[in-house]
Specification:
The structure holds two protein chains of two kinds. By secondary structure, chain A is an all-beta fold. Helices cover 0% and strands 49% of the residues of chain A. In chain A, strands 2, 4, 5, 6, 9, 10 and 11 form a seven-stranded mixed beta sheet that branches. Chain A starts with a strand and ends with a strand. By secondary structure, chain B is mainly β. In chain B, the strands form three sheets. In chain B, strands 2, 5, 6, 10, 11 and 12 form a six-stranded mixed beta sheet that branches. In chain B, strands 3-9-8-7 form a four-stranded antiparallel beta sheet, with no helix packed on it. Chain B has a two-stranded antiparallel sheet with strand order 1-4. In chain B, strand 10 and strand 11 form a beta hairpin. The chains are: A mainly beta, B mainly beta. Chains A and B meet through strand 5 and strand 9 of A and strand 6 of B.
């Protein structure tokens, strides 16, 4: 089966600009996650969707980050405006359900100048 | 709150020698524990999981881990390292099965010929 697809793979922007990342989960996977992985750290959960509803966004900086999964399939994560500390790899993961193993995409590496 | 501590940021071994990556955890409940591997510029891949069944867990690629409640440890081992094992390894804990994964800071495994 095809894995979790993410794009772009790399993105370089200047601070205060906006950026968006896209994730296409594995077909049939109802649960979708976005993680932030800062260099030298483990991934940190930003938001979890179950179908098109938000299950957990407690660690999402909502003043600048937003995410949506309108039709319960693809998802986008947006940052507006970006700060230097947002430089990280953004990972998307999906699972058949919340009690099933997560499958990760290769991530989007974001660099803020 | 749950957390994991990976005791070594880097581990260097020679090809064909044993691998030991150390992890201690903290959890208020009966935890689920995982090891994930991340190759450069790739997403995370599940190596193995402990979910309150057998305390010795076998995973993919010859890796295994032992859950020791008395020591709150979940160390990852492999009898003989291969060059392809060079990667970043993350110990992960969850109080809710496969959801709300809490990652350690990672251990980089270096394998020399």
């Amino acid at each position: 089966e095809a894995g979790v697809a993410q794009s772009p793979r790399y993105k370089i922007i200047e601070k205060r600009q906006s950026v968006a990342f896209w994730c296409n989960p594995i077909s049939g996977h109802a649960t979708l996650y976005w993680y932030q992985q800062i260099l030298g750290q483990g991934p940190k959960l930003l938001i979890q969707f179950q179908n098109n509803g938000v299950v957990d966004d407690s660690q999402l900086p909502k003043d600048r980050f937003s995410a949506e999964r309108l039709k319960g399939v693809d998802s986008t994560l947006k940052i507006q405006p970006a700060k230097l500390e947002d430089s990280a790899v953004y990972l998307c993961a999906s699972s058949r359900g919340a009690t099933q193993p997560q499958h990760f995409g290769d991530g989007t590496r974001l660099s803020i100048l | 709150a749950q957390s994991v501590t990976q005791l070594d940021s880097h581990v260097s071994v020679s090809e064909g020698t044993p691998v030991l990556l150390r992890c201690n955890y903290s959890s208020s409940y009966s935890p689920s524990l995982f090891w994930y591997v991340q190759h450069p510029n790739k997403g995370l891949q599940l190596l193995l999981k402990y979910t309150s069944a057998a305390t010795l867990v076998k995973g993919i690629n010859g890796f295994e881990a032992e859950f020791k409640k008395s020591e709150t440890s979940f160390h990852l081992t492999k009898p003989s390292a291969h060059m392809s094992d060079a990667a970043e390894y993350f110990c992960v804990v969850s109080d809710t099965g496969f959801q709300k994964l809490v990652f350690g800071t990672g251990t980089r495994l270096l394998v020399s010929p």
